[in-house]
Write a structure and sequence with these properties.
With about 325 residues, this protein is α+β, with helices and mostly antiparallel strands. The strands form 5 sheets. Strands 1, 2, 4 and 5 form a 4-stranded antiparallel beta sheet that branches. The protein has a 3-stranded antiparallel beta sheet with strand order 3-12-11, with no helix packed on it. A 3-stranded antiparallel beta sheet has the order 6-10-13, covered by helices on one side.
């Protein structure tokens, strides 16, 4: 079960090319109202030679990952803290640009420039030939949406997923954003997804089984009739962008290992209003809900400590807080 989840997660890892709208299959049935836009530029955005790049930056093929859960040293942890802090900074830059009328490609371009300014590599760029510097997934798109000429509209919800590479380590985080006013159904989806994610984070501490993460999320989400995407999973992260443990966000009987001090991993549940089934667009990257209903996701990179976890990609004092994070504005469910 976990192997199949990881293989599906590798939709992000194993795609080899992308398409402009003009060569999408005429027979493909999109499930919602969203359609792919066109790419502003073909190929990768350039980076200065001064930026240290990961092993796949030129070839598109990452080196084989370890088969065990890595325990980071004190020095490694400090490097992870730096990478994750920078990932948060760049995500905040991208999030600040969300507004009606902007294109997702404009957000990606600004994010790319923010990476250059910080002398860091945007990890998605050319990872198994992924063409852009981040993923932006709107409405019914679950994950791995490719930034393009798509214009954000009032009422949209979107996830911006950012990973950066600094001094040999990757930091990974994502957040939901809304454009203008959104409907109550979308607000409820965002609040439920955020709450489930937070409960899963609170569960984590040394000695806890990784399989319990999915149980916590499923117990909460199922009360609202929502579904959990089973095709993608959380993962270890550090020197490799994706590494063990591979963690489903739903209840599983698999032995995934036990949390130990020094482990670093993500939690990134993808929650759907309707079916959990996924449809992959002809670009071979964009994953959408099979019924066209909306999806939401949040992600942090976490470090297991003596007393629980440290949220390495936590918001800074300068980060904007969303309404679902504040006691005075969040939905009471």
């Amino acid at each position: 079960e976990i192997l199949s989840s990881f293989i599906a997660k590798s939709n992000f890892i194993s795609r080899s090319r992308f398409y402009s709208q003009s060569i999408f299959s005429k027979h493909f049935q999109f499930t919602g109202s969203l359609r792919p836009g066109v790419q502003k530029i073909q190929g990768k955005r350039p980076l200065p030679s001064s930026i240290v790049v990961p092993d796949y930056a030129e070839s598109g093929n990452p080196a084989p990952r370890s088969s065990w859960i890595e325990t980071l040293s004190t020095q490694d942890i400090e490097s992870m803290r730096v990478a994750c802090r920078l990932a948060r900074e760049v995500l905040d830059v991208a999030g600040s640009m969300v507004r009606e009328g902007i294109t997702t490609d404009e957000i990606d371009e600004a994010l790319h420039e923010a990476c250059i300014k910080r002398n860091i590599y945007p990890s998605p760029l050319n990872y198994m030939k992924y063409p852009r510097s981040c993923c932006i997934s709107i409405n019914e798109v679950i994950c791995h949406g490719i930034p393009d000429s798509t214009v954000l509209k009032n009422g949209d919800i979107l996830n911006i997923d950012v990973t950066v590479f600094k001094d040999g380590f990757h930091g990974d985080c994502s957040e939901m954003f809304q454009v203008g006013e959104i409907d109550l159904e979308s607000k409820k989806l965002l609040q439920v997804t955020y709450n489930a994610w937070q409960q899963a984070i609170s569960y984590c501490k040394p000695g806890k089984p990784y399989s319990g993460i999915g149980s916590v999320i499923e117990d909460y989400v199922s009360k609202f009739g929502y579904s959990i995407v089973r095709d993608f999973c959380a993962h270890g992260i550090g020197r490799s962008l994706h590494a063990p443990p591979f963690i489903p966000h739903y209840r599983s009987k698999e032995n995934l290992g036990i949390m130990e001090v020094g482990h670093v991993f993500t939690i990134e549940p993808m929650i759907n209003i309707g079916t959990s089934k996924v449809v992959i667009w002809p670009d071979q990257w964009t994953a959408a809900t099979a019924d066209g209903k909306r999806s939401a996701q949040f992600e942090h990179t976490l470090l297991v400590t003596q007393n629980g976890v440290e949220i390495l990609t936590a918001k800074s004092i300068d980060s904007k807080k969303q309404w679902w994070e504040k006691d005075e504005t969040k939905l009471v469910l």
